[in-house]
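Entry:
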Amino acid sequence: MTKTPVALLISGRGSNATALIEACKAENFPAQVCIVISNNPEAPGLEVARQAGLRTQVVDHRPFGKNREAHEQALHACLTEAGAELICLAGYMRLLTPWLTSTWAGRMLNIHPSLLPSFPGLHTHERALEAGVRLHGCTVHIVTEDMDEGPVLGQAAVPVLPGDTADALAARVLKQEHRLYPTVVKHFLDKTAPACQGGEALLVG
């Protein structure tokens, strides 16, 4: 089968990137990782990618100072040279400019640790507990100019349990992130309907 070249963007450990890397090893998975890029030279996920035999690249944002677009132009050059046709943000901790989001419109996905539109931005697990919600989870969405507001492609929900801490809730959500992201990427590329996994609710829009 012809596989779509996908670039993974990370800033840290890259656990969601690892889940996608593993998924791409399957012959029937419609994507292959063409490059893993980080803005952080010390990101542990880079070594994970190297151990998997994948091409890696660092596009450090710091030399660009406050010029976010110049940094993104350098990033875009790497993506283009690697032949990427889809970007998956996997813990990429940079606010993106309209230049990059418009350049890759409809071809950039992100995973966010909440059931959007609830709790966009940071500290989602703490905010979910403070709000007293009964369900929490994660969302894969198309990236647009407005942060965490792009069209939702899929969501996985977990119950909020009595006595939950932010760390405990985050750990349960992360397990669902690792299942949801590859499933949604597969659905996005080959249009096959994903199935519920792991006993948790998987809702695909």
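The mean pLDDT is 94.
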